[in-house]
Amino acid sequence: MATTSDIRKGLCIRYNNDIYKIIEFLHVKPGKGPAFVRTKLKSVTTGKVVENTFPAGHKIDEVRVESHKYQFLYEDGEFFHFMHTDDYTQIQLTEASLDQPKLLKEGEVVTVLVNTENDEPVSVEMPANVILEVIQTEPGVKGNTATNATKPATLQTGAQVNVPLFINEGDKVKVDAEDGSYKERVKDGS
User: Fold this and answer.
1) What is the pTM of this model?
2) CATH numbers and ranges of domains, the chain
């Protein structure tokens, strides 16, 4: 049994007869009253995000997980198919177990957390940043780089991201996999 002091981002816990992954947390120590931990939890079965406040020192039921590297193969509409990079076994996961399914491109290597009790996949962790090609956006305007103005762009995976005005179709961009935001343009060869 763990306590609220063990709470960290990505920790999987058993809560309300389901397994939840902690996606955000904040330790709060008000001037009056006892300390507590405010959390955002994502169900690994339904994908639903709930907020909960745990009193300081509260016991939490931690789920032991192992991480394995898997390569994303394809999506068939209902499931996302992955292959283990060591033994080539394949698994299929629903969209609910993925944090940013629109940013997955074929061949991307991700970390899959597996419950050690029943060997069921619990969650998929993307790399920190993904590099994707812009397939559709308005033409760029030369010299329009000083302002923070943005325009919508469609990436090769179908994801929509706001990019600076100088980005053109065919450019490769680095996208933050956690929140789906534009980071920078990537030059070929780097």
Assistant:
1) 0.71
2) 2-62 (2.30.30.30), 65-125 (2.40.50.140), 129-186 (2.40.50.140)
